[in-house]
Amino acid sequence: MAESQEHDHAYMHAHGIAHSHGHVHENQKAVINRLARAIGHLEKVKRMVEEGEDCSDVLVQLAAVRSAIDNTGKVILQDHMRHCMVDAVKAGDMDAVDDLCEAVNKFMK
Fold first, then answer.
1. Among 27, 29, 57, residue whose Cα is nearest residue 41
2. How many beta carbons lie within 10 A of that of residue 96, not counting itself?
3. Which residues contact 68 (CB under 8 A, 6 or more apart)?
4. What are phi and psi of 73, to 5 degrees?
5. What is residue 83's DSSP assignment?
6. In terms of Cα–Cα distance, which of 100, 103, 90, 80 is closest to 5?
7. Average pLDDT across the chain, whole number
8. What is the pLDDT of residues 20-53, one digit of tens each?
9. Under 8 Å between Cβ of 19 and 101
10. Which of 9, 30, 52, 100 has the fewest CB atoms below 10 angstroms from its CB?
11. Please, what is the angle between helix 3-14 and helix 95-107, to 10°?
């Protein structure tokens, strides 16, 4: 990130201004594929419920959805820490650390 971008990013965090990252990380394709898989599992769960399939089978399929979402979250978190957080710390943006802690708390509820 260029020095002026780092300053802008730090300024936005310091002043509570919402921002979007608008950048592509190395794992974006993997995240998109994992989300597509989770959506497919969830659609399967919906069909199973609509068709009155066995509750145990529905629960197993729901577990697959949850696992796919959790694993996607792990990939996003790792990517965020390796890229966004490194840039934020270099820019002196310690608010980004607080934002990450809050996001992790919400993700892990």
1. 57
2. 20
3. 34, 37, 38, 41
4. -60, -40
5. I
6. 90
7. 82
8. 555 667 789 999 999 999 999 999 999 999 999 9
9. no
10. 52
11. 60
pLDDT of residue 19: 47
Express each pLDDT in 90-105 by its tens digit: 888 889 888 988 989 9
Percentage of the chain lying above the pLDDT 90 cut: 44
Amino acid letter for position 64: A
Please tell me the predicted confidence (pLDDT) of residue 44.
Answer: 95
CA distances from 52 to 12, 25, 64, 100 (A): 50, 41, 19, 41
The neighbour count for residue 12, using CB atoms within 10 Å, is: 15
Say how far apart CA 98 and CA 107 lie, in whole Å.
14
Which letter, b or e, does each residue of 30-40 get, where b requires 16 or more Cβ atoms within 10 Å of its Cβ?
A: ebeebeebbee
Task: Give the global pTM.
Answer: 0.67
Q: Give the residue among 74, 62, 82, 85 at the shortest CA–CA distance from 107.
A: 74
